Amino acid sequence: MRHRSHWPATERAARSRLAKLLHDRVLVRGGLVEMSRKCGKPNCTCTRGRPHVSLYLAARVGRERKMIYVPPDWERSVRAWVKAYREAEELIERISQSCLEGFLKDKAKPPEAGTKQ
Length: 117
Fold this sequence. Notes:
It contains 2 helices and 3 strands. It has helices at residues 9-24, 75-107; strands spanning 31-37, 52-61, 64-70. It has a 3-stranded antiparallel sheet with strand order 1-2-3, covered by helices on one side. Helix 1 runs antiparallel to helix 2. The longest helix has 33 residues, at 75-107. The chain is elongated. The model has no long low-confidence stretch (mean pLDDT 88).
């Protein structure tokens, strides 16, 4: 493995941002889904075309996919957690592409005897 000073600037920046993100934030892998429904009360506004809207987090819990209700007080936090996970995913993809490009470039020349790659 090469020293980080040999990494391209874009890869160094992505790794730095990813480390900070992993250290400072809560990450949740999942998607947010808004669902609307009618409550069934005969005089409610939902019967006249304004259904109740609720936010759910679609995520895996163990091996099962779950729809987890997000109370309104938690909406801002959960949205930030999902957004942080997506940003981490994008950074990992950038780092992976940079490493792949380096591999393809280095593959063309044989490694020096006795050195670690």
